[in-house]
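Journal club side-thread
Mid-discussion, someone asked how the predicted structure for our own chain would compare to the paper's figures. Pasting it here so we can look after the session.
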Amino acid sequence: MTAVVNKSVMLESIKDDEFVVFQQMIYEQIGISMSTKKKSLVEGRLAKRLRHYGFNDYAEYIALVQNKGNVAERQIVIDMLTTNETSFFREQRHFDFLASEVIPKSGHGSPYRIWSGASSSGEEAYSMAMLFADQYKSGRWEIVGTDISQQILAKARQALYPMRATEKISADYLNRFCLKGVREQDGMFLIDKKLTNNVTFNSLNLNGQWPSSMGMFDLILLRNVMIYFDQKTKQVLVEKILRHLRPGGYFMIGHSETLNGVSSAVKMIKPSIYLKP
């Protein structure tokens, strides 16, 4: 189908049963439970796709998305309806804990492996990279970032950010690990290759099939993600995640999250910080 871009198309409001289609799609595909309060959000974000195709109601777009061969459009729906809120050195207490309690005691000969389980556009992974490049002196380290959105992963791999994103990056780290953009990249900064060479980004649906090649990790971060999942989805997901955490490894979640009632396989060291015995 050839897209017809028409911004003047008058769109009908999304109906309750049409919202349910997207609600179920997101839950089945990635495990996120969207409440009925998200109806206006879904309508607003997907309106761009309706205008893109020249549709005037959501029923037409649903027919397009549900076509079995239209995998790319379903991915676009996921990209548009998932939130990718992140920043450098978000939730600083986690970084302080790693610097004071974890890094000085680590170093087992193999590369120290970190998994940023919902890496979004890369700020979390590169923040970890700055910290480990600065303080981890006992061996090699590597970071794997994963996300379901191909669009957001492309931004992460580019490693290019607006200067306003430097607010929580120290002057020392900016000087050592970031390059100021010039000419067409004026107003931007680039993460230095000495960090990006140790960071990889891969597509992964947390609630789908995982590759057998993932391996084991010393530190896993899944911060501010489980707030979107129901209890059963959390339990299944955390059980899968912990299979990839080495004994003695740490699992960090968002400050507003907890594993109470989710898993007893790890011990809480501090709120949102857990240790696998």
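Post-session note: The two ends are 54 Å apart (CA to CA).
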